[in-house]
Amino acid sequence: MPDDERNNERNNEKTRDNNNFSITEMIVRVIITAIVVGLTAFFTPGFSIDGLWSLIIASIVIGVLDYLVERFTGMDASAFGKGIKGFLITVVILYVTRLIVPGFHVTWIGAIIGAIVIGIIDMIIPSKAAI
Q: What is the model's pTM?
């Protein structure tokens, strides 16, 4: 098999893998996001969540926003994984979530500190699921 055909086959496999949407993967992402956001809210001033339902809804919204950013820009919104762009995307996702979810309160400074905390947690427990 010529090299061009092998490269085309590999590219087609990568495209198929990137286009697959798994509900199980999304549920796992939401659960891990809930744990990370809960820890972040505990440790971050200017960042609070009123209750369990707000945490769950916020985790779903964050997961959807992260998925949309990744889908349309091709960039993973990871606080430390993609440099300043990933960090800023994480800050914006946290701040936009506050506008959508009742009971999820974060200031700009809280979102910035929260993105740092999320990045630290992601370094300790690396997972693609965390924001």
A: 0.72
